[in-house]
Design a protein that fits this description.
With 218 residues, the chain is mainly α. It has one domain (15-214). The chain contains 6 helices and no strands. It has helices at 15-36, 44-63, 72-88, 101-123, 139-178, 182-214. The longest helix is centred in the last third of the chain and has 40 residues, at 139-178.
């Protein structure tokens, strides 16, 4: 497969692990800098983090309700990590951790287990009613359908992010090899937009899945 050269790699460690460590280091460094220089009127990187925080809080309250605030640290962390992971692939010589199914699968499984855990915690034994359907007579069929639907969520959640990020990186790499710099530069601009949208879609779906587990069964 056609691949652009990677500038940073650690022998014996998969490239996406190296990129993940690099992304986490960037996030922690940015958080440290912001924490040391907090301002009442935010500027620069502080504005970026506060924007994500405010947006996440808004969607949590709109979709889940007031109890959604407890999930703010986790969902906001998802947003920042996925966004940084996506964007680093836009820099020549680097690749996105989210362009690997292993990374997106882990993120999707965290959402999967968390959503069902909070549903069980809130509804106790009544949680199973979500899988039985509205009528007892069709419960044997509905439970199969609902279980398959629940199991398909982490698969589609992980695959959507991975496939989009992998495809855009591959496309830009091919263009860099075949065409002048002007066209790849335009594609890289579009890649940044896609990176933002895919991070937003992933974390919004995470909120929706948690909300579905928390909602009352009628």
């Amino acid at each position: 497969m056609l691949k652009a050269p990677i500038l940073i790699s650690i022998p014996g460690i998969p490239v996406y692990w190296t990129m993940t460590i690099l992304v986490m280091g960037m996030i922690l460094s940015a958080a440290f800098i912001v924490g040391r220089n907090l301002r009442v009127v935010p500027t620069g990187i502080q504005s970026f983090f506060e924007l994500i925080f405010i947006m996440t809080e808004y969607f949590l309250k709109e979709i889940i309700g007031e109890e959604g605030g407890v999930y703010l640290p986790l969902i906001a962390s998802f947003a920042v990590f996925i966004l940084f992971s996506n964007l680093i692939g836009s820099i020549p010589g680097f690749t996105s951790p989210t362009a690997t199914i292993d990374t997106t699968a882990v993120l999707a499984l965290i959402v999967f287990f968390l959503s069902h855990a909070v549903g069980i915690k809130k509804h106790k034994a009544k949680y199973i009613k979500k899988f039985l359907g509205p009528l007892i007579i069709i419960a044997p069929i509905m439970i199969i359908i609902e279980v398959m639907s629940a199991l398909s969520r982490p698969f589609s959640h992980a695959l959507r992010l991975f496939a989009n990020i992998f495809a855009e990186e591959f496309m830009v790499t091919v263009l860099l090899f075949l065409l002048p710099w002007a066209i790849p530069a335009i594609m890289m601009y579009m890649q940044v937009f896609t990176d933002l949208m895919q991070a937003f879609v992933f974390y919004l779906l995470a909120i929706i899945y948690i909300a579905l587990s928390l909602e009352e069964e009628h």
